[in-house]
């Protein structure tokens, strides 16, 4: 049992080191200007545009259920008009970026890992090396950069739709006063809440892109290896988002408060 735990820790540290080296290669490739605009545009469309429906539905129903639950508790103490303020702060700083990251990890992370894993199994990545094309430049950099770009945009959409849906259900169904509800939302929601959410989205985008590409580039042979790499890409991306969210909340709130 002790040896198994030591082996697990060694494999985890080795994987963390390889992801770090992959991140370094991506940064070095970005500054060397070897990225083609055509590949980046396609990844922006695939990762960003095609993920909008999932993200918008998630944001809308998250905002509505949060508004309903908050109203049911606040109504007991006659604080109905503060419902939208709670929804706004929660969506901007926590729920918006985290849920968007989880949805993108589930859809895009699995697709990236499966695509690159299939290319590795069919030896297409080795063929790129024989043609003097670095796989990181051609395959990883456009995907990581596209995920980094679209995550703040998708998060902003999720936040806006979530707040709008919460306002609609609060005013039309829960019969909250619209003027006071909107006033208190603007009063309590600060710019640092929005900045916190955008900063989190940027970091989540990098995590999703790096972890998914790493799992795809290092998957084992066969269909089983591709399937396992796809599953691990989604699970590890989600775990990384949830863990980083805690530390980012502490660090960003302290930095923005000073």
Tell me what you see in this structure.
This protein is an all-alpha fold and 258 residues long. The protein has one domain. It contains nine helices and no strands. Helix 3 packs antiparallel against helix 4. The relative contact order is 0.16. The mean pLDDT is 86.
Shape, principal axes of CA atoms = elongated
Low-pLDDT runs of 5+ residues are none
Portion in beta strands: under 5%
Helix content: over 70%
- Termini separation comes to 47 Å
The rounded Rg comes to 21 Å
The SSE string, one letter per element, is: HHHHHHHHH
For the record, the count of structural domains works out to 1
Alpha-beta content class: mainly alpha
Please give the number of β-strands: 0
Oligomeric state of the chains present here:
single chain
Taking the sheet with the most strands, its summary is:
none
Average pLDDT number = 86
Tally the helices: 9
Indicate the topology.
Blueprint: H1 2-31, H2 37-48, H3 52-74, H4 83-121, H5 124-130, H6 135-172, H7 178-188, H8 191-217, H9 222-257
Helix pairs in contact: 1-6, 2-6, 3-4, 3-6, 4-6, 4-7, 4-8, 4-9, 6-8, 8-9
What's the gist of this structure?
The protein is mainly alpha-helical. It has helices at 2-31, 37-48, 52-74, 83-121, 124-130, 135-172, 178-188, 191-217, 222-257. It has one domain (45-257).
Features:
258 residues, single chain, mainly alpha, 86% helix, 9 helices
């Amino acid at each position: 049992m002790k040896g198994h735990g030591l082996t697990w820790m060694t494999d985890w540290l080795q994987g963390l080191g390889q992801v770090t080296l992959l991140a370094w290669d991506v940064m070095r490739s970005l500054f060397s200007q070897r990225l083609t605009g055509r590949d980046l545009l396609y990844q922006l469309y695939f990762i960003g545009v095609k993920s909008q429906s999932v993200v918008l539905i998630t944001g809308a129903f998250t905002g509505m259920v949060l508004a309903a639950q908050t109203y049911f508790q606040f109504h007991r103490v006659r604080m109905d008009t503060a419902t939208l303020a709670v929804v706004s702060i929660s969506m901007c700083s926590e729920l918006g970026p985290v849920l968007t990251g989880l949805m993108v990890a589930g859809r895009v992370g699995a697709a990236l890992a499966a695509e690159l894993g299939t290319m590795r199994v069919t030896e297409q990545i080795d063929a790129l090396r024989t043609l003097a094309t670095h796989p990181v430049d051609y395959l990883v950099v456009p995907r990581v950069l596209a995920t980094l770009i679209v995550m703040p945009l998708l998060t902003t959409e999720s936040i806006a739709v979530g707040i709008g849906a919460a306002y609609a259900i609060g005013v039309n169904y829960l019969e909250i006063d619209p003027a006071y509800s909107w006033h208190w939302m603007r009063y309590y929601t600060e710019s640092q809440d929005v900045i916190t959410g955008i900063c989190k989205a940027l970091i989540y985008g990098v995590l999703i892109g790096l972890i998914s590409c790493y799992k795809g580039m290092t998957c084992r042979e066969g269909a089983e290896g591709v399937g396992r790499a796809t599953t691990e890409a989604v699970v590890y991306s989600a775990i990384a988002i949830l863990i980083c969210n805690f530390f980012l909340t502490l660090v960003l709130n302290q930095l923005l408060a000073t």
